[in-house]
Structure formats: structure tokens, C-alpha cells
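Bug #77: duplicate submission created two jobs. Keeping one. Sequence:
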Amino acid sequence: MEQPHSFIRSQTPNHVCLLKKSLYGLRQAPRAWFDKFSTFLLENGFVCSSTDPSLFILRNGQDTVLLLLYVDDIVLTGSSPSLLSSLIHSLSLQFHMKDPGYLHYFLGIEAKRNSTDLFLCQTKYAIDLLTRAQMIDCKPISTPLSQRPYILQSDSIPLSNPLEYRSLVGGLQYLTLTHPDIAYATNMLCQKMQQPTIADFNNLKRVLRYVKGTISCGIFLHSRSSKQLYGFSDADWAGCTETRRSTTGFCTFLGSNLISWTAKKQPTVSRSSTEAEYRALASATAELTWVSFVLRDIGLSLSSPTRLFCDNQSAIALTANPILHARTKHIEVDFHFVREKVASALSMCVIFQALTSLLIFLQNLSHGSLILTFVPNWELVLYPFPICGDVKAYKPKSKTNAGDQEPSLNGNKEDEVKKFKLKSKIDTMYGS
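Kept job's structure:
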């Protein structure tokens, strides 16, 4: 180590500078701040979460306090007001900080609460993004991307300055925290970061026009929801016309609360729809496993196995098949990962169900779709779970009009025999 220029002392050439205070702009500043703050929390009884290093948990008898740290922004909640007050007082004595009261704005996310629900939105952030793009007065539109894009020859010309495109798309990525309806469109725009064209910039402006129309939308979190953790997984096989790669889409729920979602292009080309669906299952399984670990750290125990819904029977059959066939060796890692989760005592159940509404993460939104209406009323309690790792084939019951009767065995016997054979085949494949 050498002395820096303009700070060389000839009397002590072997001495070096000692950093007494970390300043903003230095690379070691965030690390030094986190070390100091986390050390104080650990000395006062907090425990760092094993799944999220920015989450700290304090348990004092029957009371629990959760502290979430992002650089110098802190979210603090707990079950005891007196314990929270004493902790805030201890933090204010150790660090220069202020208490703005109940959570209402955090990292660009607005929180609006009442006695039972919490509404998260990014209205101010969306307005700032539209202002930066000079589209605050643009005309709203009902869909983020065109269903049938018509590209002119002049639209394929690369942008002369792609910095604005990259900056705005990066802003859209953060907006997807409360806008899952633009997850697929943002994913498509992010794939053009390297060399965007005029057509890509026009698509970006269309998404911004859609954001203008849904600027006040967000995510509702209900406090009286159940503690059932479940997810939905789907894949758009070979949906990319340029690379023929598939797109993974999944979302996870805690009761009726949507807590995470993803739309992402798969890293490799899938040779069959089963392979694409199974890779999506593996990604959803990893997300559900991480969420279950976070819930375990904060003291929330799940009352039943995690359920993962899928609409591909071949992929579900692979989760229940203990024999690794030669045709599945190219997805061997994903196969073993999902299979172990299904077979273990802490695992999940994979259930078949048509997931038409999950297309929000895989395709363009149709005309009139809204963020608050894309989740239908799914019937989730379908089968009892006598053992963990149970895999069932499920088809929703068709709704019958008043006066309609169930078909009797005395009707068309041929159809009844076919139904019985089909039921026997399903029971043989997935267990009775």
C-alpha cells in the first residue's frame, strides 16, 4: 500500500491514511454502515433472517418486532406498541434518525391503510416517470402492447441515442412492483436493451400511455386473509419469434394476497411444451420455497402443504414419476428439485387446473383488462391431503343452470363406460 498523491509525507513514508468516518460516494460506505447498524441490532437481541439479510427479527416473550433495512431507510413493525416505542428511542440515541409515523411512503411505494386492508401503489413514481419521458399529458390507452404489431421498414432503424430508452425501461422495471399487468410488456422491452430500434421505442411509448391510464392502480393486501400459501405456474412455449425461447410466468399468493410474480424468458430453448412447463414449475417451486422460509423466520407457520397449480398434465406426471426417463435427462436438475419438494414431508402438492388468467404474465393483455380483475374466483379446497406429496388431476366442475340434472347411469351407457375408463386411467396415473 502506498500513500496517495498530494498526501505523501517524507518523514513517515511507511505510514498510510486511516479512515475515521465513512462518507457517501465511497465503495465501502454502505458496507460500513450496514456493519455498524446490524451490530447494534444483534447486540440488542435481534436475529438476522437466514433468507433475507436485510430482515431482522426480535422476539420478546409473546411479542415480535420486524425491522427491514434498505441502506438508511427503515421499516419497523411489531405486535407491541410499547416495545416499538422503546426500540425507536434506543435507535434515536445511537443514530441520527427521525420517526415519520405510520408507513405511508417507502422507496417510491405509497402505502394507504385502513382498519383491515393495505393498498400499495406507485402513483407519484409513475407521474415522475411520465414527466421524465415528457408524456404527462399523453392520451391513455387500454392495452400495454399491440396484439398484432405492424412494423414498417423504417421502424427497424436503430436509435441514435439509446440512453433514454434504457433509462425509461429501467424505470418501468421498478414500476412492476405494484403493476403486474405490465410485467410481460416490460420483459419484452428489456430484451431490446442492447440495440433498441424505433419500433421498440414506439412500444415503450405505448406502455407509458397504458401507465397513464392505470396510474392509480396497485395491490391490495388483506389482513383477514387465510394463511394458505399457493402459486400458479405457466409457460408460453417457443413464444419468442426471434430465438424460439419460452417465457416463464408464475405468481404466488398468501391467502387472497398476491405477494410475488414473474415473467421471464427461459435461458435455453425447450424442445417440447412439457419441458417449458417443467422449467416454469421449477422456478415457481424455488420462489415458493423461499417465501415459505421467510414466513418461517417471522414466525408464521403454514397450516397445510404448499399448493402449486399447473395446466400441463405431462409436467405433473413427471413430478409424480420416481423414475428418470432418458428423454428427461436434459432437465434432470429441475426434475430432481421439484420431485424432492413433492415427495418430502414439508413439500407441496402439484394440482392440474386450466390457468387462463395467468396469461397476464405471458401474453399481451386483451382489450379492457385491468389489474384488479385478472384473478378469478378459484376453488382451491378441492381434495383432502392424506399424505404429503399427493398429486391430483383436477378439472373444475361446469356450472349447470337451474333445472339441469346430472346424467344418470340409465342414459347413454357407452358414454358412461368411456367416462369410467377415463377415471380409472387417471386414478392409475395419479393415485386413488
